[in-house]
UniProtKB/TrEMBL annotation:
Residues 450-809 form the Solute-binding protein family domain. This is ABC transporter substrate-binding protein. One of its GO terms (biological process) is peptide transport. It comes from the Bacteria. Keywords: Coiled coil, Signal, Transport. Residues 55-65 have a biased composition (Basic and acidic residues). The keyword Transport applies. GO terms for molecular function: peptide transmembrane transporter activity.
Length: 941
């Protein structure tokens, strides 16, 4: 019978492999592996007392053999039970000695130790490591004779069988034949793991040079190698039941604890020697191995801080000072509130360095040495971002400190995702806060997704996505508070629990399960069912959830909204009015943003000023003087102010019409008003409005190519609207149908006067609503004679009345779909569960006070049905076209038109979104979210 090969443990993949000799052809080895495993199976059992006892064989006449260990195992170096397994790839050693094993012997060669022995230049350490390359236990009898044997399965403090079998190992690690051993003749059993722990402690703690001539750093490294090998062996043996029974847990704990302590000792020794490359390598490895051992990790990072302390106190090189700041930031992010004296010393040293560099920069500016001043200021900004006077000094730089001026109809006030009301406020949110993934405009695909707070694109695991966060993303203004995975989880949990019915929570029904936090930088987000494009759901802005909870604040806290704190490229500074211009709201570059990997120098634009244009008669003059660079939304009727020769802006600005327009206009209907429960009335109003006439007279300003009438709830050129001849929806304007529906309404005796609210911030709204009033009253004169009372309100009052108080009958409002998944967006708007205060269904459709009509029921069923389809071409697209028909039958709101959105852009402003050097054409920007990717924008002469 062929003897089985020895077991060789090496870190190549999660399973150990068998390795024999070079003489065996490689194509034979897979067969040999299976055959060897079969031969290594030991025939043992357990009696009622938990003792290992021999089993009888099937062959008659063959004697019973004592219980013996045997088999192989799986590698699992997992010091921290919750840690992710870390394995290194080590090639197979084809030079392993030939070993012929007796049947049943558990012979284990730890190849890592053989490698370490071969690599060490120290003969004493080589001999020491080779002593433990083959795993063994040591049995001592009452004559103090010690014998090495192959590992036995039972722990020495457990119940050892009265008679058991062992395989002795000779000096060449060759196993002898099986021999019987009586437990009464055994004085002591020392297991391999225990022997290595003793050896490792001896190496680390020896006061004299033992072995002679060996430095302590080399002894400690050898101790780590021994312990890692022991842990490797132990886990393999336990996995394959070659170490079994009670008592082994404490053995493993002792090995793992000693190993972590030795690794920490080795790290500290490297720090004392200023071997920073080794410190970084060891620290990174320990961070991976012990992600949940906070006490150990704090010691690891404290050791790493020694490099930062040396640089902060002795170096004048900007790169080394910036590296010190990075190390300090990483320590602060992992251990908020730590009282580390080393960290405090670094902090104070960097402040002192920043003070000196600031003074040097001031001198350089007085000497007009702009280049040197810029370099010094950049270093100050990196190592002490809150340094007093820094922003004023930056403003004195010529060309290097660029300020972007953005025109706004309303200056931003509420600047958090849940409180923003106007386009400028949503733009401010994009400056301050960041999502895991950012949706960026793309001239090829319309939109692309890029990791922002995520360190990379997520990995898919079924319906789950695994994220790793960027390091040292700091909440600007909170005093060394850093983004943590619990901030992401806390934001999503709060949205799911308290704000699921707001627009921020539109996608949480796809994420019903709690976010699983693995550690402070890793988390898993689970989804309940498939979405056509899950990345679209990962764009929710992350808020400082831990800080808000500690301050007893909610995500929609108005005080926080007025002075928000985020991780984004800009931070809110305040509101002011220059002596020579209109009122401004100022955002300055977040100095901590540039410390992230790949963000050096960003944002390239150092300030963003929102300029109040409400009282500016000639905005073109601001462009000419450099006090305006970007107008994100310009009405068609005002384009001549920038394109006419009198504007004197030829070659200075570009006027573009955005291709990324998801905004429509409608007459919102309050379904809590009984008269508006009538489908006949709603359809009568919708069919009475001649949209083309209003667009021509109010909005087009002679440009017939702009603006389109709606035929349903979706933008005119969007994918849910059928494009095939014969299936294209007809125009909604139909005076005959309007009269018929109004006659149907009149029979039931409904209300004849309705109030239509509009915002007075745009004069065109008043003209449009006036025409709507006339058209409705004319179309219904012969039927029921509906009267429309107009009421104009300032924008802030209008918003509160319609969206917060829900005190309206009809309201002229815009509605913008969040993304291209229009049927889902319509479902979110009309979600019957989202009618509560602050919910996105501000029209409160369908009404809860009365039974819904047949048309309302069918529309509700269609909206619910479409949520269950993720197959775009197979199910979703046909369902969306049916949804269009159901909508027109029920008419929960009155679709009006889509107004093209124009932007005026300074030719100096370049929209870089990546590092390719190719700027994006601004026509692909979505005006309300134009600042996606703003960190890479540049102002260039």
């Amino acid at each position: 019978m062929m003897n089985p090969p020895p077991v060789v443990l090496f870190r190549d993949n999660p399973k150990f492999r068998m390795n024999n000799t070079r003489s065996l052809p490689r194509h034979v080895r897979p067969f040999l592996l299976s055959f060897g495993l079969l031969l290594l199976t030991v025939v043992v059992g357990i009696n009622g007392q938990g003792q290992i006892v021999p089993k009888k064989t099937d062959k008659k006449g063959e004697k019973e053999s004592p219980a013996v260990p045997g088999g192989t195992g799986a590698y699992a170096e997992v010091e921290d039970p919750k840690a992710k397994k870390v394995r290194e790839s080590i090639p197979i050693d084809d030079e392993a000695p030939v070993v012929f094993l007796p049947k049943g012997a558990y012979y284990v060669r730890i190849e890592d130790l053989a490698r370490a022995a071969a690599d060490t230049p120290s003969p004493p350490l080589r001999a020491l490591l080779l002593r433990y390359v083959v795993a063994f236990d040591r049995i001592t009898d009452f004559q103090d004779k010690a014998q090495r044997v192959t590992p036995i399965p039972a722990f020495r403090l457990g119940k050892i069988p009265p008679v058991f079998g062992v395989f002795d190992l000779d000096d060449r690690n060759q196993p002898a034949a099986l021999r019987r051993m009586e437990s009464t003749k055994v004085r002591k059993i020392e297991h391999y793991e225990e022997l290595i722990v003793e050896e490792a402690e001896r190496l680390v703690n020896a006061k004299l040079l033992e072995p002679p001539g060996v430095e302590r750093k080399d002894r400690v490294e050898a101790a780590e190698q021994l312990l890692a090998g022991a842990l490797l062996f132990h886990d393999a043996a336990r996995d394959q039941s070659k170490r079994k029974g009670i008592g082994w847990e404490q053995v493993r704990a002792k090995v793992a604890d000693t190993l972590s302590a030795v690794r920490l000792t080795r790290l500290k020794l490297a720090s004392e020697r200023k071997d920073w490359a080794l410190v970084r390598s060891l620290g990174s490895r320990m961070t991976s191995l012990y992600p949940n051992n906070l006490k150990l990790l704090e010691e690891v990072f404290t050791a790493r801080l020694a490099e930062a302390l040396l640089a902060a106190t002795e170096s004048e090189k900007p790169a080394e000072l910036e590296n010190a700041r990075d190390l300090l930031s990483e320590f602060e992010s992992r251990f908020p509130g730590s009282k580390s004296e080393t960290a405090e010393s670094i902090r104070e040293a960097l402040k002192e360095k920043a003070k000196n560099l600031f003074e040097q920069a001031s001198v350089a500016l007085r000497q007009n040495d702009q280049k040197r001043a810029q370099q010094l200021i950049r270093t100050v900004e990196t190592i002490d971002p809150g340094h007093a006077g820094l922003r004023d000094l930056q403003g004195q730089l010529t060309g290097a400190y660029s300020v972007l001026y953005v025109g706004a109809r309303h200056l931003p006030e509420r600047m958090t995702p849940l409180t923003a009301r106007f386009p400028s406020e949503r733009q401010a949110v994009d400056l301050i806060f960041e999502p895991l993934l950012e949706a960026l405009p793309d001239d090829s695909y319309g939109v692309k997704y890029r990791p922002v707070l995520a360190n990379a694109m997520p990995t898919a695991a079924g319906l789950s996505r695994d994220f790793t966060l960027v390091k040292t993303a700091e909440w600007a203004g909170l005093g060394r508070e850093y983004l943590d995975a619990t901030d992401v989880a806390g934001t999503l949990k709060a949205v799911r629990d308290k704000y699921r019915h707001t627009w921020v929570g539109e996608y949480v029904d796809w994420m019903p399960d709690p976010v699983r936090v693995e550690d402070h930088t890793r988390l898993r987000i689970n989804f309940a069912s498939g979405h056509p494009f899950p990345l679209a759901m990962m764009t929710t802005k992350v808020l400082p959830a831990r800080w808000l909870t500690a301050e007893n604040k909610q995500l929609d806290d108005l005080v926080f909204a007025l002075k928000p704190v985020g991780t984004g490229p800009f931070r809110f500074v305040g509101k002011g009015q220059p002596t020579d211009g209109p009122t401004e709201v100022v955002f300055a570059a977040n100095p901590t943003f540039a410390r992230r990997a790949g963000r050096i120098g960003q944002p390239f634009i150092k300030e963003v000023h929102f300029v109040d244009l409400a009282k500016v008669a000639d905005p073109a003059a601001l462009f000419r003087s450099g006090q305006l660079h970007f107008l994100p939304d310009v009405p068609t009727g005002e384009l001549a102010k920038f394109t006419a020769p009198a504007a004197k802006l030829k070659g200075q600005v570009d006027v573009v019409t955005t291709e990324s327009n998801r905004r429509i206009y409608m007459l919102a209907i309050n379904h809590q008003r009984p008269e508006l429960n009538s489908v006949a009335l709603r359809r009568g109003l919708a069919h009475a409005i001649d949209r083309e006439e209003i667009l021509d007279k109010v909005y087009r300003a002679g440009f017939s190519q702009f603006h389109k009438a709606l035929v349903g709830p979706f933008p005119p050129n969007s994918w849910p609207i059928p494009k095939v001849a014969g299936s294209v929806p007809p125009p909604l304007f139909d005076s005959s149908l309007a009269q018929a529906k109004m006659s149907e309404y009149a029979v039931r005796g409904g209300e004849k006067t309705l109030t239509l609210l509009y915002s007075t911030d745009d004069a065109r709204s008043r003209f449009a609503c006036e025409m709507v009033r006339k058209q409705i009253e004319t179309a219904t004169a012969t039927a029921v004679s509906i009267k429309i009372a107009l009421e104009g309100l300032p924008a802030v009052v209008f918003h509160k009345r319609v969206y917060e108080d829900r005190d309206f009958e009809l309201a002229y409002v815009p509605f913008e779909y969040r993304d291209d998944w229009y049927p889902y967006g319509l479902g979110f708007l009309l979600d019957p569960e989202a009618q509560s205060q602050g919910g996105r269904n501000f029209m409160r459709y369908p009404p809860r006070t009365v039974s819904p009509s047949r048309e309302d029921k069918l529309l509700g069923q269609q909206l619910e049905e479409i949520r269950h389809h993720a197959d775009f071409t197979g199910k979703l697209s046909p369902q969306a076209q049916r949804l269009q028909l159901r909508f027109v039958e029920a008419m929960p709101f009155i679709p009006l038109w889509q107004l093209d959105r124009h932007m005026v852009v300074s030719t100096k402003l370049k929209f870089y979104l990546d590092d390719t050097g190719e700027a994006l054409n601004p026509k692909w920007l979505a005006p309300d979210h134009a600042f996606a990717g703003v960190a890479r924008w540049k102002l260039q002469d």
